[in-house]
Structures are given as C-alpha cells and as structure tokens.
Amino acid sequence: xxxxxxxxxxxxxxxxxxxxxxxxxxxxxxxxxxxxxxxxxxxxxxxxxxxxxxxxxxxxxxxxxxxxxxxxxxxxxxxxxxxxxxxxxxxxxxxxxxxxxxxxxxxxxxxxxx
Length: 114
Description:
This protein is α+β, with helices and mostly antiparallel strands. The protein has one domain: RelE-like (YaeB-like fold). It contains three helices and five strands, in the order βααββββα.
C-alpha cells in the first residue's frame, strides 16, 4: 500500500530549515519520513504542552543544536511548524520565544485548514 501522507511546510520553517547544514537536513528528513510511516524516530520527542501529535526533532551536530517541530494531527499531512538552531546554553528545554511561535503557528494553521 502506498503512503498518501506528505510533508507540508510552513513557509518560514522551510526557509529556516534550508539554512541548516546538509548533514543535519538529511538526518531530519529521515526522521520526518519515519513520521510519514506512522512511526517516531529516536531523535523525536512529543511536545505534550501542544496536545497529542506535536513532536520536536532534536539533533546535536558538532557543537550546535538543531530543532524541528512537526504536527501529525492538523490534517492528513505531516506539517513542519518550526525549524531553528537552539542558541541557549541553559539546559535542553526549548526556549520560550520558540514555544510561543510554535503555539501561534499551530493555531494559525488549524484556522487556515478548517
């Protein structure tokens, strides 16, 4: 049976993702393709504060941290909501400005796709 799901991107998330190093892009695309198959990659974790079906891919690359947030339950596709390089050196938590942006983008996307 052929997979009918696709990866859809919020425009700015795609632009930000394309600035990541090529090796990082390959690993994150692999994790997104695993999500298309209904599985969860080892480098993905749920972001429960946004409800079920929202995940963050966290990847360490050299001395940098790259993150991509995607949602499964907005429509039939896997939606990439946000892509960013984590700058904070304090812990592993996603910074509050990024969480606020993710929340706003999810709200806007749900409204748009109704």
